[in-house]
Amino acid sequence: MIDFAPSTFIFVALPCEAKPLIQAWRLKKLPQKQPFAIYKNADIVLVISGVGKIAMAGAVAYTLAQFPEATQPILLNFGIAGHRHQALGSCFLADKITDAETQRRFYPQLAFDAPCPTLPLITLSRADVEYNDENLRDMEAAAFYEIAVKFSSSELIHCLKVVSDNAESALEKINEESVMAWVQARIANVEDMITVLTKLRGSLPTSESELYKQLLEQFHFTATNAAKLHTLVNRWQALNHATMFNLAGTKFENARALLAWLETQLEKHQYYL
User: Fold this and answer.
1) Which residues make Cβ contacts (< 8 Å) with residue 65, sequence separation at least 6?
2) Which residues contact residue 149 at a Cβ distance below 8 angstroms, ignoring those fewer than 6 apart?
3) Rounded to 5 degrees, what angle do the CA atoms 255, 261, 265 make?
4) What φ, ψ does residue 139 adopt, rounded to 5°?
5) What is the pTM of this model?
6) 37-92, pLDDT tens digit by residue?
């Protein structure tokens, strides 16, 4: 595990999406051998997942397990996406995310004035050149969001996309130089998102509540599971305006069972429909 607690995690699929951010923020690669390339400074962690839902889901879960002390982290998926007609290099925040394979739909909580326009986004298992709807289209966002909500409050989890292809400029025209140029031009948008979400993070309830302390005393939590409990209680408070959940009639064999139960209760609030 890593011995510092960053506040912001950014996940990209491709090295060419990461390179301008690494240079702009002077991020340093973690020296330890990792299954994913991880770069950091004092506050930001940048992870290159590889292409596709499985790669992204693995990167999010692995990375956040390495930082158990990161409480209510800002989690941002940034990278390129296609669209039917939006201009190359234009930047959008996803306001709805659909997994084309499972048809799960996620609705990021826009509890702030978005620093750029918003559009719905669909995550595909294969690259699509049909552009037959008004969605942004990528191959990672749905998996990112589905795993990320297990580690932070939904208000702090978002997908920011830069248009790389459309009906007039197809996928095969994309190259690393173009991607780096588009990302370089949108670093300010990423920084604006971090600023907005950092301010929002400061206004969310903290989980150093009597309930949190009570649960820590009742069960044996590893450092990782204690951090997970911290996140889940924060999410509950944010969604329910600090209303306590009802533990009457419930019995748990261990901390892991309690966490699984709490995740189930949160899922009833329909992060997807």
Assistant:
1) 1, 224
2) 106, 157, 235, 271
3) 140
4) -125, 10
5) 0.77
6) 999 998 999 999 999 999 999 999 999 988 887 888 999 999 999 999 999 999 99
